[in-house]
Design a protein that fits this description.
Structural class: alpha/beta
Order of helices and strands: HEHEHHHEHEHHEH
Mean pLDDT: 96
Oligomer: single chain
Largest sheet: 5 strands, parallel
Strand order of the largest sheet: 2-3-1-4-5
Bound molecules: shikimate-3-phosphate
Strand content: 5-15%
CATH superfamily: P-loop containing nucleotide triphosphate hydrolases
CATH class: Alpha Beta
Helix content: 40-55%
Radius of gyration: 16 Å
Amino acid sequence: MADIKHRDKICATPIVLIGMMGAGKSSLGIRLAETLDMPFRDADREIEKAAAMSVADIFEQHGEQAFRDGERRVIKRLLSEGPMVLALGGGAFIDDETRALVQEKALSIWLDVPVDELVMRVKKKPDKRPLLKNQNIDAKLQELMQSRGPIYQTARLKVDVSGGTHKDAIYRLLSALSAHYG
Ligand code: S3P
């Protein structure tokens, strides 16, 4: 186990990763959880399990509002399950109720990545994300970042995870966490 300053304090509270599509909430979340020896959950995967259908199908068949309602319920349940690293979908923290709950029960971390890098990342898997379907990805991500940025900004911590490798990003996350509890 890596020697992580203030590990006990870090692991005593749920860590919730927020940010735009493509910021690395899931891929970094898995690695962060492994490094800290905490459970990992991905809110979108839990919504899919609960609904027995994919996020894309929920959007298509029931609409975004139904997805947001399910998302709120699932996150509430997950946050009652004790400390874990939890990756949220990009829009979850924008919901007032979900955000209030996250801020009450967890340490929120905004994974900040500039839009041009997000565009390159999400273009690799364009079908995975219903909000980007038939859209100019560049323009849509700019628009979302403009409206969501000020709300993401209210996260307890903000960590720049742009450039570099996953290992670099985990190092930055652990440094921010240790500094927070130091
Ligand atoms: C969304 C992001 C997606 C998923 C859904 C809506 C959003 O998750 O929850 O497609 O509103 O930004 P990722 O951020 O993991 O792509």
